[in-house]
Amino acid sequence: MPSSDRSSIWPQQETIVKILLTEQELQVGIERLAKQLSVDFGERPITMVAIMTGSLVLLADLIRRLEMPIRVSLFQASSYRGGTESGQIEVNDSAMLDIKDRDCLLVDDIFDTGKTLTRVSERLLSMKPASLKSIVLLYKEGRQEFPLEPDYFIFKIPDQFVVGYGLDYQDLYRNLPYVGVMEQADLDAHHLAHPPA
Ligand code: IMP
Ligand code: MG
Fold first, then answer.
1. Residues contacting ligand 1 via CB (< 6 Å)
2. pTM recorded for the entire structure
3. Model pLDDT for residues 29-61, shown as the tens digit of each residue
4. Which of 10, 102, 145, 160 would be a feasible disulfide site paired with 47, CB 3.0-4.6 Å?
5. Is the dihedral of CA 37, 158, 83, 186 positive or negative?
């Protein structure tokens, strides 16, 4: 595809993302969580239910640090449709394993209003797991609108829009190895280059 055509579907590469959590900080945090899970679960088998797509990088790094038997189940849930506002949740559980009578750990990238974790937890509880706990990489402060809290979070962050390490903006930036902040000017520039459909 000629580069002039490509620029209409790919953002300008110079969009600036300011680093909030470095690769090393992320790895230290994940190691800390893995140790905590090893203490809390011991050798009990765990079924990880990863909310796609944002949690996939965390999932890959976390499960390789755990030694108990692990099953991985995927659950698609999206609350953000293209932008940064939390909308309705769409779910797809066609890649779910049977979790009846299993100890489950729900994994998500970020806890924002809490809607996703609340709705997905309700759905999983109806599948009658033996237990259900939740993990998030990031806990965004001051945004919560639902009473459910994650059982584990790795980092608390201020109320800013972040990308990288699995988190996206309009399905981009998930592959950044760090977590970075996109400021309003970056988001606006992105929109100018790529008007929403
Ligand atoms: P909640 O349902 O409002 O808690 O939002 C959780 C979901 O919104 C996460 O799984 C993310 O996909 C998305 N989200 C919330 N905040 C951010 C952010 O700062 N960057 C990228 N995605 C976010
Ligand atoms: Mg997400």
1. 54, 79-80, 86, 108-116, 161-163, 167
2. 0.89
3. 999 999 999 999 999 999 999 999 999 999 999
4. 102
5. negative
